[in-house]
Write a structure and sequence with these properties.
alpha+beta, ibrinogen binding protein from staphylococcus aureus fold, 4 domains, 5-stranded antiparallel β-sheet, 14 helices, 22 strands
């Protein structure tokens, strides 16, 4: 979401206490549209982030770490020249518009005071950051020429002209004026009309006001202007309650006041609007990085899978040559059995196949003797048989590699953190399917934790998120009498019912099987066969890849993948 004017108001009010009086120590531009000012003052070192992105324009104090480019951009160098050592004297928002003016006092070459203003215009795709002195633009993050915008130009040496707006500030508007404006609505759509004449009213805020006015759905009623005006004034007079709203663990909206209309699974409160905005964009940044890393691993695995599938197809074609090998042996046998009938230079032997009784014609090499022709057929037979034996062995390895990579594919989707994806990256490197990671790099990472659940009967259930975790759970964590579960002949997670002593209640067993089905390749199916056995019946063959085990003495239960049950039992 884009920062709205109302939330920006509360962020700016907090910044007055945090940043005014601080000096700018360093200036960084970690991304083309993002400026970070490292501030310093006695007892505090806040970092102020200004982002002019089209979809994430914002301004707030940040605790996030942003990697800087090897060489700073030109605008960053410009700001360093003019702002390093400058003192922040005031911070003001233009009404509830998304424009913040940061007053600065720097020193010129003679040591005289040099007042400047850093202006952050946070208006979506029209966002910009510019430094002005005496109302004149010194430079800006984005240069806007007359060819780009006929409304106003933003170029060095031009006077700064703030965007024009006739909207009214809902924090200072009188009730009489607000009622009068609402009475002029006419046939306009009420949601769009609210945004058209009031500052700081985003579409979400307009929905919230209408929801508070009429939760069952908006319709025209008598005395609408007076009643809606009271709702609006009451909403804007509320004290700040910074809240971030999430669905399925993903933040989708934040505001400095509670929004009753936000259809969220979870709401997280914050002590300050700055901390809320920083947490919101920090989490989105983390999820974006996670998504990029997940996609990169998927590409690596899919590329290797495609190669292996093609290899297995060729190997299958070679194995299908087994009948041809037997034909070469049969030809050699027939030539040997009928060698007395063949003379050098004979082009073909017509003989009866002693296995089928059919008459066959065997081409002969006229340059070779009858015995040499027989040996030629045997050599072809032996060569093909050896090839088939080698191919059969390689095909078994190829099939095992495909099963391993399919399990890795599943693990990638189950990962919830960057560290868990790094474990898979390391696992792929160790297996030879990706560049190998240095052992020290892997050792520096804290081992990730498996999924943990509590069954309806009170039993702890664990499930691995990747093959390394599967191995640790099965071969290290589990006791001999814990119950081990895995989907039958389908890649999936290793699941354990702890302290089961070889026998768990039926409801717990089904819940563990449903978890195994949900964390398997068959998670989109209706019913999935899940094998279960005491852990002591599970072993890992020598040289097997991570997550690969064999088991015996097992039973099978049918379970349905159930994401809702998965989330309900998860701890």
């Amino acid at each position: 979401m884009t920062l709205d004017g109302l939330t920006l108001h509360d962020i700016t009010e907090e910044l007055k206490n945090v940043a005014i009086g601080c000096k700018i120590d360093k200036v960084h531009q970690p991304q083309p549209d993002t400026i970070v000012l490292a501030l310093r003052a006695p007892g505090k070192n806040p970092r102020l982030l200004i982002c002019a992105g089209a979809f994430d324009s914002r301004l707030h104090v940040t605790e996030q770490k942003y990697p800087n480019p090897a060489s700073p951009p030109m605008f960053c160098m410009f700001l360093r020249k003019h702002l390093t050592g400058a003192k922040i004297t005031h911070i003001e928002q233009a009404g509830l518009e998304r424009i913040v003016n940061i007053g600065l006092e720097a020193k010129d070459e003679m040591g005289h005071a040099r007042p400047m203003t850093l202006i952050a215009e946070l208006m979506g795709k029209y966002s910009n950051v510019m430094l002005t002195e005496n109302g004149v633009i010194l430079d800006s993050l984005r240069h806007v020429t007359h060819a780009v915008s006929r409304v106003r130009s933003v170029l060095p040496s031009l006077p700064y002209e703030p965007p024009q707006s006739a909207k009214l500030n809902p924090l200072t508007i009188s009730r009489a004026t607000l009622v009068e404006m609402l009475q002029k609505k006419g046939n306009a759509k009420i949601k769009a009309y609210l945004s058209s004449f009031l500052q700081g009213i985003s579409g979400q805020t307009a929905d919230e006001l209408l929801f508070r006015y009429m939760p069952e759905g908006y319709e025209n009623l008598p005395r609408e202007a007076e009643r809606l005006a009271d709702i609006i004034l009451e909403f804007f007079s509320q004290p700040p309650q910074p809240t971030m709203y999430l669905r399925n663990g993903v933040p989708f909206f934040y505001a400095s006041k509670p929004y009753l209309s936000a259809a969220a699974d979870e709401a997280v409160s914050f002590q300050s609007a700055n901390a809320m905005a920083d947490a919101y964009y920090g989490r989105l940044r983390e999820l974006e990085a996670l998504s990029r890393k997940r996609d990169a691993l998927h590409r690596i695995v899919q590329k290797q899978l495609d190669k292996l599938v093609q290899t297995r197809q060729k190997q299958q074609e070679t194995l299908e040559q087994a009948d041809k090998a037997e034909e070469y042996k049969m030809r050699g046998d027939l030539i040997t059995a009928n060698i007395y009938r063949i003379s050098r230079g004979t082009a073909a032997l017509v003989a009866q196949d002693y296995m089928t009784g059919r008459e066959v014609v065997i081409p002969l090499d006229t340059r070779l003797s009858p015995a040499a022709n027989a040996q030629q057929q045997y050599r072809k037979y032996n060569k093909l048989r050896q090839s088939i034996e080698i191919t059969a062995s390689r095909m078994a390895q190829t099939t095992a590699d495909i099963a391993f990579l399919e399990s890795v594919q599943l693990s990638i989707d189950a990962c919830e953190t960057a560290d868990e994806l790094s474990e898979i990256d390391y696992e792929l490197g160790k297996a030879g399917f990706a560049p190998k990671k240095h052992p020290a790099e892997r050792a520096a990472q804290t081992p990730s934790q498996p999924h943990k659940f509590l069954s309806s009967d009170g039993y702890t259930i664990l499930a691995g998120k990747n093959n390394r975790q599967n191995d640790l759970l099965t071969m290290k964590t589990a006791a001999p009498d814990d119950i081990w579960l895995h989907t039958k002949d389908i890649p999936g997670a290793h699941v354990l019912i702890l302290n089961a002593k070889g026998n768990a209640p039926g409801s717990t067993l089904y819940e563990a099987a449903a978890i195994a089905a949900t964390l398997s390749k068959a998670k989109g199916g209706a019913k999935v066969a899940v094998d279960y056995a005491p852990r002591k019946n599970v072993r890992k063959p020598n040289g097997a890849k991570p997550g690969m085990v064999v088991y015996e003495g097992y039973h099978t239960i049918m379970a349905s993948p159930d994401k809702a049950l998965f989330e309900k039992l998860k701890r």
